[in-house]
Amino acid sequence: MHVRAGTVALPEDLIDVDQLVGAYYDLVPDVGDPAQQVVFGTSGHRGSSLDHAFNEAHIVAITQAIVEYRAAQGTDGPLFIGRDTHALSLPAWQSALEVLAANGVTVMIDARDSYTPTPAVSHSILMYNTHDGAVRTSGAGLADGIVVTPSHNPPRDGGFKYNPPHGGPADTDATSWIAQRANEIVRGGIGQVRRLSLDAALAAPTTVRHDFLTAYVDDLPNVLDLAAIREAGVRIGADPLGGASVEYWGAIGERHGLDLTVVNPQVDPRWAFMTLDWDGKIRMDCSSPYAMASLRERMAGPDAPFDVATGNDADSDRHGIVTPDGGLMNPNHYLAVAIEYLYGGARPAWPADAAIGKTLVSSSLIDRVGAGLGRRVLEVPVGFKWFVPGLLSGEVGFGGEESAGASFLRRDGRVWSTDKDGIILALLASEIIATTGRSPSAHHADLVSRYGESWYARVDAAASREEKAKLAALSPAQVTATTLAGQDITDRLTTAPGNGAKIGGLKVTTADAWFAARPSGTEDVYKIYAESFVSPEHLADVQASAKAVVSEALAG
């Protein structure tokens, strides 16, 4: 824990924006170095220009690879492109547009020349691809998209995501091909890529202005009961944390007559107003009590100015919920409350068999809530992409991740977005207050009284590159331990029970606890997620036992 965690950033914590942007154009990556290659994780390619990991060559090459990939897939409709408020997002957006325009791709850019949240891009793709009430995901004339964002990452980072016609994060088949082709292009030199000047790209007949904000904001009553929020007079404080939702929140309040205050309308690529995260870095993580310290302080005590306050990360795909009676809610707790509310009668038009989607590192409280509701819980590997097919078909009503990312169906049971939507999850907290008269924190207390209290945490353990590779390839038979923290092991999983997909690690369960171990893609560690329904001391025992179980399996 950093000594200044939760305190406002000092000048020495801030990036030099000119240096960062200059490095984007001036530094040339060496793709012979794995750290400088294009690599797509669960949320696209990320890195910093200062580290030769997010530079002009990367973005030009990735965009050209996407042009070739979409052509090979027969995707020849428009491409919706958005960006967040990170300093590297605008130059990367410009580079991408130059390549797309030169290749004759119709590109839908923001009509306001402004920022676009990830969920607004997903929403626009789906709306374009909807015909007779159904979304087409393959064939001619379909749209896809790009979002230029590293999500909640520090200000020095950049990110680049591709969303195919289904509107959600691209799967590994797509991203592996795109990354491999992009690295080939960088290796051969980006001079081979067709490109227009920025002015020519903006003036190209294929570059079309699209009002992402209006399309998204005007459609919100079809996914949320905004009338109930308005009539109940719920006082909302919305903090965009300097991200892409900054203009959206004001428009939401104005267009739908809500008592909504944009707590902090500042946009600063240095994020000088942020409080430092647990490790002393500026990180727009709206699920972190340290990054959310300012909003938490404002909501503390009996005289809180709002009934609920919310935060979003830089591209608005994550949510943070702060209530006067509970402070910042643990993401797992809020997911469980949202599920209990939505499936418990708030959405009668949803399919009767719509499953609850959760990642395998999300709280088992969700499993207990699902059992209480009589609903199937679909447990999938880490990554929102696993929820996309179910959200499209209506087979999944709600998909959520422990990292405060989720989305859910429209009120009539049709798909809303297939990427995480922090805005609708934040607004759902107000709907819960409006229709039940109680805060999400109070609802979580009810769940605890019915299903038990749990303690959840994530820690890291050191691991070499070889050990990480071995962990990712483990089979259940290699786990010989029979007990975990004093309880009999009930299951050993290396594939997700919901869809049989490999989890790239290990999950071990007992009657009252579990842990999951997954190798880090960027550091010499593996991540241990763990939960106990016994006590915080038992959670510590689970974490210690997890390291022993993994070490034994790796040594076997």
Explained architecture:
This protein has 556 residues and is an alpha/beta fold. 35% of the residues lie in helices and 21% in strands. It has 17 helices and 25 strands. Strands 1-2-8-7-3-4-9 form a seven-stranded mixed β-sheet, sandwiched between helices. The protein is globular, with a radius of gyration of 23 Å. The mean pLDDT is 96.
Distance between the termini: 34 Å
Report the count of strand segments. Answer: 25
CATH topology of one domain: Alpha-D-Glucose-1,6-Bisphosphate, Chain A, domain 3
- Please state the CA-atom Rg, rounded to the nearest Å: 23 Å
Q: What count of helical segments does DSSP give? A: 17
CATH superfamily of one domain: Alpha-D-Glucose-1,6-Bisphosphate, subunit A, domain 3
CATH class identity of one domain = Alpha Beta
Low-confidence stretches: none
In CATH terms, what is the architecture of one domain?
Answer: 3-Layer(aba) Sandwich
Mean pLDDT: 96
Helical fraction: 25-40%
Shape, principal axes of CA atoms: globular
Fold topology:
Elements lengths: L16 H10 L13 E2 L2 E5 L7 H17 L6 E5 L5 H14 L4 E4 L7 H11 L1 E2 L2 E2 L8 E5 L8 E7 L8 H17 L9 H6 L3 E4 L1 H8 L6 H7 L2 E5 L6 H10 L3 E4 L30 H6 L9 E5 L6 E5 L3 E2 L2 H16 L8 E5 L5 H9 L3 E4 L7 H6 L2 E6 L3 E4 L13 H15 L3 H12 L3 E8 L2 H8 L10 E2 L2 E2 L2 E5 L6 E8 L3 E7 L5 E8 L3 H20 L1
Parallel strand pairs: 3-4, 3-7, 4-9, 10-11, 10-12, 15-16, 15-17
Antiparallel strand pairs: 1-2, 2-8, 5-6, 7-8, 12-13, 13-14, 17-18, 19-25, 20-21, 22-23, 23-24, 24-25
Notable characteristics:
Alpha-D-Glucose-1,6-Bisphosphate, Chain A, domain 3; alpha/beta; 17 helices; 556 residues; 7-stranded mixed β-sheet; single chain; 5-stranded mixed β-sheet; globular; TATA-Binding Protein
